[in-house]
Design a protein that fits this description.
The protein is mainly beta and about 150 residues long. It has one helix and eight strands. The strands form two sheets. A five-stranded mixed beta barrel has the order 1-3-6-8-7. Strands 4-5 form a two-stranded antiparallel ribbon. Strand 2 and strand 3 form a beta hairpin.
């Protein structure tokens, strides 16, 4: 993590299976959303109440992306750590759009409410390509001028 970045840890549930795709350069990218819903205990009723959910759009890269796509599914309770990045783009109509995305550095299943089995096999380490800007990976025409951000 670099100086000045905004670190964040989110605990919540995946709203859908991670979407795995590959850039033209072959880098894996997993996109997914984590819903974090606070719960409070109401002493008067003696029951737990759900608060308003916050949805975090997330991106994981390279080997982490592939592992997340292979390991996590819709509804998985996860603990994710990363940093907030702002992504800007223009629509076909020339309107400026912007959104915050959590670039995930670490993610794992939460064992608070369930158990998981860990595969102890350690894959070979691969170094990221030098000079690659992770947010400029998909400049394909299908994403240019779209209302959806290109990641």
């Amino acid at each position: 993590m670099s100086f000045g970045e905004t670190p964040i840890t989110v605990i919540g549930n995946l709203t859908a299976d991670p979407e795995l795709k590959f850039t033209e350069g072959g880098a894996a990218l997993a996109k997914f959303t984590i819903a974090a819903t606070p719960r409070t205990y109401d002493k008067n009723s003696g029951q737990w109440k759900d608060g308003t959910a916050t949805f975090f759009r997330c991106a994981a890269w390279r080997q982490l992306a592939e592992h997340a796509a292979d390991s996590l599914t819709k509804g998985s309770r996860v603990v994710a750590h990363g940093r907030i990045r702002q992504h800007d783009w223009k629509t076909d109509q020339g309107e400026n759009r912007s959104m915050l995305v959590m670039e995930v550095d670490e993610i794992g299943a939460s064992v608070r409410f369930t158990t998981v089995t860990i595969n102890a096999k350690r894959p070979a380490q691969s170094a990221p390509a030098a000079g690659n800007d992770a947010w400029n990976t998909d400049a394909s025409p299908s994403n240019q001028g779209s209302d959806e951000p290109p990641f």
